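Side project, low priority. Logging it here so it doesn't get lost.
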Amino acid sequence: MCEVCCKQKGSDGECWRALVQIRQRTIHKKTLFYLEQIILKHNMHKDPMTIKEMEGGINFYYQAKNNARKMVDFLMAMIPCQYKTSQELVSHDIQSNIFNYKYTFFVEITRICKDEVVCLPVSVSRYLNHMSQVAICTRISDNIHLMDPITLKIGQLNAGQYFRDAFDAICHQKQLREFMVMNIEPIYNQDKQYGSYSHKHQLADVWVLPLNSLGTDDQENEIHTRTHLGNIIQCGDYVLGFDVAHAVVNNQVFDKIKQGQLPDIVLVKKIYPEKVKRNKGRNFRLKHLRKNSAAETVTDDGNDGDYNDFLEDLEEDPELRKNINLYKREQKPQWMADAEEVLAPKVGLEELLDDLVLDVADTDQDGNMMTDDAENAGS
């Protein structure tokens, strides 16, 4: 094979003209699962000739540059991200002055994900009406939605504002610690200053105890904090929180904050018991892209846990479900009927879509549907 043919085919063995590389530098894949669903909802998976799952993201291969550019514009409108372009000369005709290029679009998604505790730089805190520097990311859409759990002050950052003064999470969801709620007192008369405040949450004083302290001598040492979960938690509930007082954080901005301005604990979300039954008893399923995995670079450790966490976010957040198509499960096994007794948020039947009955070969091991269009693209 000549040098020109080798460049046209590429190191991956595919004859493509444009490549969109989507990457996110984080420890879980929840944002990538969300991105997969909005791509399916808007039929953006029909143009690529091949879709490959890579370490930390997905590659989309196209035969035309315009289709790749269309995907990049779609990503910029749907999620906070930035992109860079590059081109490689494949061949050229000196007589007619025609050049043949291969184009690559590198799309970087913001490193901040839902239910993560972040430490805002001083400039970003001032822009968000002097929001506390320790905040929670409540949602990722076309903007990054942030909230101060101590005052309920909220703010948003678009992609340009984030990457202009980027910051990282100081605590991921997998690093959160479990606590039990021992006492709670809602706060109804809050002194609100300038800025926007959340009306979906209720501020409350809460006393919690780490689960590993139950039944020990430290059981009477309850920890007090203020939380935004006052409308959904009660005494005896379990919550996930960031133990600020005992955490070792490697962040220069966080180190500059005075100790007296930091809370002892930042509660992030409520957790529900019987997680195994909840994961098995869902009344909906999702479609997935059929991707060709690069076995030498992809590690599947923890993917099932990330996917179940993503499904739990769908059940608990109606705003997140608006951009995703959820499909009914036609058959209802016996274990699903037993799982319906779990006291946890569920998706109503009015939000589910009917779909054609698929063969067993068209579903994965979890019963989720694989798209035919993606199957043809990946073949």
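Brief comment: Confidence is low (pLDDT under 50) at residues 294-302, 356-361, 372-379.
Revisit when time allows.
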